[in-house]
Amino acid sequence: MLVTTPRDPAGTRNRLLDALETLLLDKGMSQVTLESVAAAAGVSKGGLLYHFKSKDALLAGLVRRVGERADQQLDKALAQGESVAEWYLQTPHPDNDSDAIELAMYRSMLAAMRTVDGPQDTGVGETDRALDEMMSGWKAALDNEIHDPVKAEIVRLVGDGVYLRALLGLPPVEPELYRRIVTRLLGDA
User: Fold this and answer.
1) What ranges in 8-148 are assigned the alpha helix state H?
2) Contact indicator for 90, 158 with CB cutoff of 8 Å
3) Which terminal residue of the chain, N or C, has fewer Cβ atoms less than 10 Å from its own Cβ?
4) What SS3 state is found at 164?
5) How far apart are CA 36 and CA 32, in angstroms?
6) 1-83+95-121 — its CATH code?
């Protein structure tokens, strides 16, 4: 009797994205190939191509997973009574082991940033579209919450800067000062 094991496409897909993240973080974009990702995930190159038709599709998959993780993080924040703007302005805590969603989001975002190490396409690829969709979704959420478009854009830019600062490993703004900045920025939101 032939015994078969059920296929787990989501599990394989996640293993591939985990392998891509690890390679990006450990070695950089120049060392990321379809073959290296497949090998790191324990999947054949054909298996990788079943899930992601190209390197661009693989990188876009990583960006989309960043968006999914951000959505989970936002849902958690909203359930705890935070606003979209408060969530967007939060300082990431990569050393906080108690929040798996936040840690996964931080790791994914850092890996996604490493994709800029590679050669840039002259056209708009799937990775660029995925990034644009994610950022547009966050912008729309802020615009829906903050009716002043200038203020909404300032919140977005400050949040982007805070997150980038953390991803680059720069010292955070002193917590009390940052709390005052957020309070002033969100006053009369």
Assistant:
1) 9-27, 34-41, 45-51, 55-79, 84-88, 100-114, 126-145
2) no
3) N
4) helix
5) 6
6) 1.10.357.10
Domain ranges of the chain: 1-83+95-121
Write out pLDDT tens, residues 130-172: 888 888 999 999 999 999 999 999 999 999 898 888 878 888 8
What's the one-letter identity of residue 125? Answer: G
Query: C-alpha dihedral over 182, 184, 174, 85, to 10 degrees?
Result: 10
CA count, 13 A, side-chain hemisphere, 17: 25
Rg (alpha carbons) of the chain, rounded to whole number: 19
Sign for the pseudo-dihedral over CA of 173, 175, 180, 181: positive
Whole-model pTM: value is 0.79
